[in-house]
From TrEMBL:
Transmembrane segments: none annotated. PROSITE patterns: SH2. InterPro entries: p53-like_TF_DNA-bd_sf, SH2, SH2_dom_sf, STAT, STAT5_CC, STAT5a/5b_DBD, STAT_linker, STAT_N_sf. This is Signal transducer and activator of transcription. The lineage of its organism: Eukaryota, Metazoa, Chordata, Craniata, Vertebrata.
Amino acid sequence: MALWIQAQQLQGDALLQMQSLYGQHFPIEVRHYLAQWLEAQPWDAIDLENQQEEFKAKRLLDGLIQELQKKAEHQMGEDGFLLKIKLGHYATQLKSSYDPCPLELVRCVKHILYTEQRLVQEASNASSPGSGPVDGTPQKYQQINQTFEELRVMTQDTENDLRKLQHSQEYFIIQYQESLRIQAQLSSLASIPPAERVQRESGLQSRKSTLEVWLTREANTLQKYRQELAEKHQRTLALLRKQQTVIIDDELIQWKRRQQLAGNGGPSEGGLDILQAWCEKLADMIWQNRQQIRRVEHLTQQLPIPGPTEELLTELNGIVTDIISALVTSTFIIEKQPPQVLKTQTKFSATVRLLVGGKLNVHMNPPQVKATIISEQQAKALLKNENTRNDSSGEILNNNCVMEYHQTTGTLSAHFRTMSLKRIKRSDRRGAESVTEEKFTVLFESQFSVGGNELVFHVKTLSLPVVVIVHGSQDNNATATVLWDNAFSEPGRVPFVVPDKVLWPQLCEALNMKYKSEVQSDRGLSEDNLVFLAQKAFSSSSNNPEDYCNMTISWSQFNRESLPGRNFTFWQWFDGVIELMKKHLKSHWNDGAILGFLNKQQAQDMLMSKPNGTFLLRFSDSEIGGITIAWVAENPNKAERMVWNLMPFTTKDFSIRSLADRISDLNHLLFLYPNQPKEEVFSRYCTPPNCMHVFSCRQKCHHMTVCLIVSTVAVTYCSHETVYFSCGTC
């Protein structure tokens, strides 16, 4: 009943869609008054394609009628009287409609409950911040479902026509055999007396003439039936192909694109259940039409009648085979991608799935899937159908896996759990290309048959581009290659072509997506943050975001050329910030305590208008993965205020002592910019000290500070020190 309660909360277009599910075939009052009973029944346990399941459907129909009658009997009072009559009428109506075909009731209720659940889920997604429909808009769903209903009606219509044709042809053959029998009788009259022969011959000739006229007329009718049926199949196949284009070339491609962006930290690509349901419906209808066309071919072979139908049937057979082949090969997909930065000698996993495997009974003879790593050039040759001589660019251990059918989910998939890249063979690099710019892909391939070996399929699918590394130090540059490829590749591209230049706003979107995902924060990069990054990337001083909207950034600027005056690239600097944040400073970023993306001059301008002891945190310009504290205080050597900057802290420093503890140690830091007392911001992250010793700074400035024992190492700090150092007295 919980689903019906939620469904009643739908609004707008979703509510209209929900209401359109009901009518004379299933009144909405029945859904309302029997909500709890309907949602508790095992509708999904019934296989609509198995006629032997009809007794289960009949049991559900009888239960539905009994529940309606029971509900009607319990209605009391004036209002109850009208409802009692109405519910009783619905009970009679449903029994009359579905008693001859109880499986249709199951189909109807399953469709209603499934659609309600989808509409409720979409409404829930839309009301959640930052989320939306995962697998398409409600309008698309409605259109796809309407087309499936149209295809179902068309397929049932051709099935009825085919039975009519079959019955007509059977009767034609009986009459044709009767004409042959009459002809045989006429031939045997030569042996009887002339008087008797004339009498019998006259009657037989009359019957023969009448039958021949009927046979000629009926032969033309049969040919007309065949031609009309073939033309109907032609229209059905055209609509099937159009529907398949929508599902495979639009919806599935969009799912794959979301999967690729998820590799950059985008939202999850969403489940495959809806896509699989659509693909299974396609497979079912394509197969039904294929079997119908083959039955018509058998009828034409059984009774050849000259005409254009035979040629059309041959064409239809080719079309339907092409459609089913395209569906099978397109729905062999990678559900879980292998890691896109792949380190040799390290275990990794992947999952491939055949969306129509269960429907086509491929699991009855489970196929084996093989994984191979190939180069970009080999991938190009493969897509051109060029002979690659089974070449590979490396050796993957544990690269064979049998597809398993999961009864509860109806999925056919192969889970590679312990693959490992033993070795890699690199190609000659072009120009300034480094090893971390070289792209590979994992090729998954399998072979299986359907329909009792009627059709044999050799299916292949390529993973997203993979960059192979042999050492952890190569990870950040490999990640840059992957990020650029995931963000800017186009559907249907030649492997693995990406633009060399992109607009700055496009890169901003990719960087923000990556940053939010890695730092696990809803607080992304602000417009000011992105202006700072643009200044760094383009060596610009402009603070106007509009100045960068039409600027392009090249791959070389992104991660090949070092920043001016530095020995690292733009990406290496940004990736260092990400690593620092996600390992040590996530909480402080989420609290808004870290401004981060500021240069030294900006920090100075902001702090000079604030009281002494005001400080802020900004990312270091000079050190990868460094963050520094800037604060305003008096200059002891001059009678003026100035902004001081500590040497940057890195991951190594924070693994010894946290940022909150370090800020707590520094007594001259009083207010986090603009005016928050530091205790309000950082105290809940501080750890209590184990011991204290007071002594002088090693620069002999006589500033006294606190020595804290962390683990077994005593460390100390003062405003002149750039790093912690061991206390000599501890």
